[in-house]
Amino acid sequence: MKAKFPLRDFAIIAVSKTKEYPIVREAYLQGIRIFGENYIPEATEKFQRLFSEFPNAKDEVQLHHIGPTQTGTLRKLFPLFTATHGVASFSTLKELLKRAEKEQTSISYFLQCNISGEETKHGFSFEEILMAKEQSVPFENPCCKFLGFMGMGPSSGDETETRAAFLRLAQFRDQSFPDKKLSMGMSGDFEWAVELGSNYLRIGSLIFGERTYG
Ligand SMILES: *Cc1c(COP(=O)(O)O)cnc(C)c1O
């Protein structure tokens, strides 16, 4: 199935999670077209409202679910979301592939990798992904496209550690999946992510201001 929107090689995802509808509306009017949200019900409410107020927005806006992708609620990603960035288990991936076929709606996804080594972070190890590749685990189908890898820097925000984590993900991609994209970089570390070749930046607070929660 043809993707609803061409997915570009570089994009800034404006992460509007927790921000009220009037803010999303204003961002749309100011020209922002690629949004990111974590909470599916909140996103659905805001973006359905946007699409009913501005019918053209439905064809212009890409909505990215930036994760985590939960197996139990992922059916609610359809048909609103273009992509989800937080697929962190093979059972979730299997469900996503199955559900996309059932809905006959295209969706893309990123596998989340734990690149900081922190136990509290979701995500695959590189070994797990390589093993699945060797075992020919299906990564995509005509409705669901495997776009690349998502990684988050360490909570410390330390420059050396963050750069090292982003570099590990970039090298893993180069060596094992050269045609895949990278989703890495947030408000506090996007410059290092850009230097290391990130394709998708997920920027919230720098665009919309600090969040009081979430
Ligand atoms: C909230 C969030 C972001 C954006 O964070 P900022 O630091 O506000 O830019 C990016 N990625 C994920 C997965 C998030 O949950």
From TrEMBL:
Keywords (A to Z) from UniProt: Pyridoxal phosphate
Pfam families: Ala_racemase_N
Domain Alanine racemase N-terminal: 12-211
Cofactor(s) the record lists: pyridoxal 5'-phosphate
Residues with the N6-(pyridoxal phosphate)lysine modification: K17
Protein name as catalogued: Pyridoxal phosphate enzyme, YggS family
Family as reported in the entry's similarity comment: Belongs to the pyridoxal phosphate-binding protein YggS/PROSC family.
Alphabetized NCBIfam families for the sequence: YggS family pyridoxal phosphate-dependent enzyme (TIGR00044)
Source species: Leptospira ryugenii
GO MF annotations, alphabetized: pyridoxal phosphate binding
